[in-house]
Design goal:
119 residues; single chain; elongated; mainly alpha
């Protein structure tokens, strides 16, 4: 008996639903989402909106240890923290700011996709 069969039997014995394994169609959709996310990060147009500038300013505040700037009612400090890490990888130069933003957004997409797969 394989481990999947034993898990299924244990779930049925306990009165729970049988665990489902995504079929090939689901995996095809997941792979398409990952490919589209990577392509958007590589060739997509990152808009220079007020929100983008605010997130970059907040990541500068993290770099400069101005923690009081992170406390506000508009922006959650999690994304600027990830953005600060991404900008550190690329060297905190203005030239590479939006490349770091694309990289961080792509990694966040992959994180959310993997969490979605586990649910």
């Amino acid at each position: 008996m394989s481990s999947i069969d034993s898990l299924t039997a244990a779930a049925v014995d306990q009165g729970r639903e049988k665990p489902t394994i995504p079929d090939w169609g689901d995996w095809l959709v997941y792979c398409a989402i990952v490919v589209c996310s990577a392509l958007k990060a590589i060739v997509g147009n990152v808009g220079h909106s007020a929100d983008a500038v605010a997130y970059l300013d907040l990541s500068d505040a993290i770099r400069d240890h101005r923690w009081h700037a992170l406390i506000n009612g508009h922006w959650f400090p999690g994304y600027p923290a990830l953005l600060a890490l991404g900008r550190a990888v690329f060297g905190f130069s203005t030239r590479h700011d939006f490349m770091a933003a694309r990289f961080v957004t792509m990694l966040a997409d992959f994180l959310f996709i993997s969490l979605w797969l586990k649910s």
